[in-house]
Amino acid sequence: MENPKLLLFLVNLLCFLSLCIAIESPQYTIVHSESDFEIRFYRKSTWMSAPVQDPSFEKATKNGFHRLFQYIQGANLNWSRIAMTAPVLTSIVPGAGPLHSSSYLVQFYLPLKFQASPPLPLPELKLKPSGWEAHCVAVRKFSGFARDEKVIKEAEKLATSLSKFPLANSTSERGYAYAIAQYDSPFRLIGRVNEVWVDVDADDLDECKSSAIAAF
Fold this sequence. Notes:
Helices cover 24% and strands 28% of the residues. By secondary structure, it is α+β, with helices and mostly antiparallel strands. Strands 1, 2, 3, 4, 5, 6, 7, 8, 9 and 10 form a ten-stranded antiparallel sheet that branches. Strand 1 (28-33) and strand 2 form a beta hairpin. The longest helix has 16 residues, at 4-19. Keywords: Signal.
């Protein structure tokens, strides 16, 4: 292949999302379900984040994930190898561009082993750890590939559903319009699972009363 970086990225994603077994994910509890979305309570957790500037959601996700993969393969000050986790979460920051944004944050959930003390990334990767306090998230599932146009449509559908739901109000405490969670390898053609995430305030749901986000 003419582009070795692209080949490395595709091979890494294939391992991450198709072949690797028993990967960890952030822990949550479903606190409310509707026909087209659900509200989850996520526990306190630590993530590693890659800020990206790019007009394209797809390109931004690839760029950020490539840097995160280098980090977990040992490009950190401890030279630690970190197990893969799921999903790959790309948060969309409000702004200009085809997705009304040109800023993204591609995020990697750190395994339990590294939650309390994540290895520091090499400076050239331009990564940063992010601490999430326990909070609630509205989640809409969708299938297929998370293309730029599809991401917009699915996010709009979730926004419409939330506007009709009296128990939850979307919040942008973290400064993100919404996030897209991807669980599958690009080589998987059928049965793909993606999600739109939106932070919500739902004080009538006991689990959501203390929703908040903090950064290290």
